[in-house]
Amino acid sequence: MLSRKDNEYLTRVGPGTPCGKLLRRYWHPVAAASELTEERPKKRVKILGEELVLYRDGKGGYGLLAEHCSHRAASLYYGFVEDGCIRCAYHGWLYDKEGKCLEQPFESNPRFRKSIRHAAYPVEKLAGLLFAYLGPRDKKPLLPRWDILVWDHGVRKLQIRGLLNCNWLQAEENTADFVHTFFLHGQMSTRLRLPDDVSFYTRPFSRYGFQPCPWGIIKTWEFEGEKAGRGWGNFVLFPNMLRQTDTLSTLHWRVPIDDYSTKIFHVGFKASPDGRRVEQPDEPPLDYEKPWVDENGEYHLRNFSSQDGMAWETQGRLYDRSKEHLGQSDRGILMFRKMLRDQIRIVEKGGDPMALVWAAKDNISIDLEALTSPREAHAGATANAYDGPRRPPKEIFDERCEEFEVPIGSARPK
Ligand code: FES
Ligand SMILES: [Fe+2]
Q1: In a domain, 413, yes or no
Q2: I need a surface site. Which of 131, 186, 300, 406 has the fewest CB within 10 A?
Q3: Whether the Cβ atoms of residue 4 and residue 322 lie closer than 8 Å to each other
Q4: What's the CA gap between 166 and 171, in Å, rounded?
Q5: Cα 105 to averaged position of ligand 1 atoms, centre (Å)
C-alpha cells in the first residue's frame, strides 16, 4: 500500500515531477524509423507529458522539437522542413534541431531571435527504432545497445502496441508480478479454449523469486508437473522495460505518454537455428497490434496483450495504491517500488541513477542473456533459451534475493 503522496511521487511523469526527472535520464523509443518517410517526414509524438514533433532532417538525421511554436503556439507539425530545420507555417520562424531560432522574418531586432530557446531533444536510431533523450544535455548517457538490438545472427521484428489507457507504472509493475501468468494467461486461454499452446503457463507453480542486479531485477521460477523446470533470467529492466529470455528473446518498453497513457514498443529476436549470420535490413519489419477490445468495447482476451491490457487498464487510469492489499506474491513489486523511490531520490540529490551506460567499451552489446546463461558474453544465443541451462545460482544470487514457495492449492495442485 502506498500513501496518496507516495503514489504521486512514483507515477507522475510531467516536466519537473520527481519521477519525470528520473525517467528523463533514460533514452526512450518514440517511433519506428519507418513511420517517417520522404513523403511524410514529420510525426507528432507525445512522451512524458510533452507534445513534440519528430522529423527527418533530410540529411540522414532526425530532429525532435516542442510541437508548439515559441511565437504564438501554432503546431510545427504543419511547418516546412528546410535544410534540416523546421519553419513554422504561421509566421515563418525557423528552428534548427538544437532549438535555436534562426529566422524571424517579420522582426528587425536580432537580439529577440537570439533570446528564443525552443525545446529540442536529441534522437538516435537503433534497430529501426528512434530513441529520444529528454534529460539534461550535460548528463546524456549513451543509447544502450541491448543485445537483441544489435545481434546479427537472427531476425528482428518490431511491434507498436495500441495506446494503453493507464499510467506507465501499472504496466511496469506487472513485469515484477511473476505469478500473474498462471491465471491471466494460462487459465484464461484454457477456459476460452484459445488455439495457442499455453501449457508453459499452466504448469503448477512451486517457487518464484526476485534478485536485484545492476540493470534491475532478475526473476526466478520453479514449476512442477510434466514440464517441470527451474530457471532464472527474465529481467525487470530499470526503469520501464521487460527483457524476456525464457521462451522468447524480447524487449518491451513501457513508454509514458503522459500520466494516464502508455505506449508499448516491442522488439522480438529469433536466432537462426545454427547461429548463422543474417543480412540485416535497415529497418526491421514493423506491425501494429490489433485492438484489444471487440466491437462492443470489451476486452476480447484472445491474446496476452488483451489479457494484460484488461488487468492494467481496469486498475484505473492512475491506479490508487492507497487501497491495495499486497501479499507475499507482490514482493517483486515492493522491490521494484523501493528501487524506483531510491533512484528518484538519487536524482533529486543531483546524482546519476542506476542502469545508465557511459562508456563506449561497455556498450558494444549489453548481453543480458549471458548474465544468466552459461556462455561467453557477446557470443549470442544460438536458440531461444526455453528453460535452457542457466549459470549456477551462486553466480547469480546473493543475500538480497527473495524467493517464495507457492502453497498447495489451485495454482499448485498436489
Ligand atoms: S506561431 Fe509560429 S511563427 Fe508565429
Ligand atoms: Fe502478462
Answers
A1: no
A2: 300
A3: yes
A4: 8
A5: 10
The phi, psi pair for 7, rounded to 5°, reads: -60, -45
Task: Report CA(240)–ligand 2 centroid distance (Å).
Answer: 15
Å from CA of 87 to ligand 1 middle: 9
Say if residue 125 is in the same domain as residue 84.
Answer: yes
Considering the domain architecture, whether residues 45 and 97 belong to the same structural domain is answered as yes
43 and 163 belong to one structural domain: no
Domain boundary among 87, 122, 139: 139
Q: What is the pLDDT of residues 285-333, one digit of tens each?
A: 999 998 999 999 999 999 999 999 999 999 999 999 999 999 999 999 9
Q: What is the 3-state secondary structure (H, E, C) of 68-119?
A: ECCCCCCEHHHCEEECCEEECCCCCCEECCCCEEEECCCCCCHHHHHCCECC
Of 53, 68, 71, the one to substitute when testing ligand 1's pocket (max ligand atoms within 8 A of C-beta) is 71
Kindly state the cell numbers that stand for 243: 527483457
Q: Tell me which residue has its CA closest to atom 4 in ligand 1.
A: 91
Q: How far apart are CA 343 and CA 347, in angstroms?
A: 6
Give the residue, by CA position, lying nearest to ligand 1 atom 3. 91
Whether residue 216 lies inside any domain: the answer is: yes
Task: Give the per-residue pLDDT at 266.
Answer: 97
* Tens digit of each residue's pLDDT (9 = 90 or more) over 138-150: 999 999 999 999 9
Percent of the chain beyond pLDDT 70? 96
Nearest ligand to residue 304 Cα: 2
Q: Write out the residue range of the structural domain in which residue 105 sits.
A: 29-139
Asked if 231 and 128 sit in the same domain, the reply is no
Tell me: do 158 and 131 sit in the same domain: no
Grid cell 534541431 in the structure block, residue: 97
In tens, the pLDDT along 191-233 reads 999 998 888 889 998 999 999 999 999 999 899 988 788 888 8
Domain total in the chain? 2
Residue 131 half-sphere exposure toward CB, CA atoms < 13 A: 21
Q: Is the pLDDT of residue 59 over 80?
A: yes
Report residues whose beta carbon is within 6 angstroms of any ligand 1 atom. 69, 71-72, 74, 88, 90-93
Q: Is position 23 within any domain?
A: no
Of the residues 89, 108, 139, which one is the last residue of a structural domain?
139
388 and 248 in a single domain? The answer is: yes
Say yes or no to pLDDT of 379 above 90: no
Do 292 and 251 belong together in one domain? yes
What pLDDT, on a 0 to 100 scale, did the predictor assign at position 60? 93
pTM: 0.96
| Helix axis angle, 168-175 to 4-11, nearest 10° | 90
Confidence band of 395 (pLDDT split at 50, 70, 90): confident
Whether 74 and 185 share a structural domain: no
